[in-house]
Design goal:
The chain is of the alpha/beta class and 422 residues long. It has 15 helices and 13 strands. Helix 6 runs parallel beside helix 12 (307-323) and helix 7 packs parallel to helix 8.
Length: 422
């Protein structure tokens, strides 16, 4: 750890001599104060424990960051590990780019596979969710008149690939309407059930929708689809790392996620899962030497790529696992329910995320009644240093709040206090 800090100081000193450091830059002192703490106390669920986890994340001065669903930070240990990989690569570039890290790459793949309870032969290490959705949408040889189901709340990166690669060939995109506040999981399953026809070939769906944080019933939809010979592709950008996920149990054919949200990896690193029996459908987006590889590695054959960031994903998964995925799962729901309890009886607010734990977790969306959400967002950041995301689609007019593991109950108290002031 001493050497890691020395390395960061050296890098920072070099940067200071060649470029202006932004006013919001994190100081060396802040990094020093983010000292490692024993995070593997499995039985400790106290608020003090989570306060210690918060110290592993260093933000710009006074910033309260409730915008993890847009982009997550990397904890200091993840940053340090990634920086060490960068230094190692720059010390001997050709060695580590062309094979020196072959085993380390496979260790990272195995870490990701273990996190999602699948085989390493079902995991490709890609760049982000958008790449994964393009890979899926471009792979299929669908015929004019075939149908792909995409509900109306799908993210643009989940719909545009289907529009470009398939709709232009005459494939029909079926867009069922999802309720903002469904009464039950079965209500959503029934919407997908009614959208299926004999021409349906693929259901592409978010695990958690970007707009109001609602969890979609992937397991139930996958079971229904499998019985009809329909493939299921899942955009997991907002779920990977937030709570426990067993992809075999989930039952989908494909699942892709950006690891730089709830897994806190270096930016521009993603995970792609393909069920072993469904991998034959997939075609690489990019080809180079090695394209005849029959394994899932053919989907990540980019030749030169940013390997320090990829190996930083391994550090991110290790950080996640050291805390404990069950513990993080429980904390996600604890923070959700704590926030909801703080505003439940306040007529100033209207929650626009389902309350049922089967339908939502650590993303909650709330309207400040009678106020324009863009104005509220601006006041929160300008006056109180609170960053969150305004959601205007589907007439939400609401703030999207992310409760990642670096958020404490004190942070939520502060948030609610300031929300009452705007």
């Amino acid at each position: 750890m001493k050497n890691r800090r020395k390395f960061i100081k050296t890098v920072a000193a070099g940067m200071a001599g060649t470029m202006a450091i932004p006013s919001c830059a994190i100081s060396n002192k802040a990094i020093e104060e983010a000292a490692p703490i024993p995070i593997n106390k499995i039985s400790d669920h106290s608020e003090a424990f989570w306060e210690s986890i918060k110290k592993q994340f260093v933000f710009a001065p006074a910033l309260r960051y409730f915008n993890n669903a847009s982009l997550g930070p990397s904890a200091i240990p993840i940053q340090e590990a990634t920086n060490e990989f960068r230094a190692q690569l720059d010390g001997f570039p050709s060695k580590y780019m062309w094979g020196g890290w072959k085993e380390a790459k496979e260790e990272t793949r195995q870490q990701v596979a273990d996190l999602f309870s699948v085989s390493a032969e079902e995991i490709a290490l890609i760049h982000n969710t958008t790449e994964g959705m393009n890979l899926i949408a471009r792979s299929f040889d669908l015929a004019p008149g075939d149908e792909v189901i995409l509900a109306d709340h799908e993210h643009a990166s989940g719909t545009i690939p289907w529009e470009v690669w398939q709709e232009t060939k005459g494939i029909q995109l079926v867009r069922p309407t999802l309720p903002i506040l469904p009464d039950s999981v079965e209500e959503i399953v029934d919407i997908y059930r009614k959208a299926i026809t004999p021409k349906t070939k693929v259901i592409s769906m978010c695990h958690i929708i970007n707009t109001n944080g609602m969890i979609l019933p992937v397991k139930e939809v996958s079971k229904m689809a499998q019985e009809k010979g329909i493939l299921v592709a899942v955009d997991g950008a907002q779920s990977a790392g937030m709570f426990q996920i067993d992809l075999h149990d989930l039952g989908c054919d494909f699942y892709t996620a950006s690891a730089h949200k709830w897994l806190f990896s270096p930016k521009g690193i993603g995970v792609f899962y393909a069920k072993e029996v469904s991998q034959h459908y997939l075609k690489p987006l990019m080809v180079a030497r090695g394209y005849k590889d029959k394994s899932i590695r053919r989907l990540e054959n980019y030749n030169t790529r940013n390997l320090p960031e990829l190996l930083g994903l391994g550090a991110a998964v290790a950080f996640h696992q050291e805390i404990g995925k069950e513990k993080i799962h429980q904390r996600s729901y604890e923070l959700k329910n704590y926030f909801r309890s703080k505003i439940a009886d306040n007529p100033k607010f209207k929650l626009k995320t389902p309350s049922n734990d089967s339908l939502s977790s650590a993303i909650q969306v709330v309207e400040v009644i009678g106020k324009d959400v863009s104005e509220i967002k601006a006041r929160l950041i300008d006056e109180f240093n609170i960053d969150c995301r305004p959601m205007t689609k589907f007439e939400l007019n609401a703030l999207r709040l992310s409760f990642a593991i670096y958020i404490t109950k004190k942070d939520i108290d502060y948030l609610v206090e300031k929300l009452n002031m705007v």
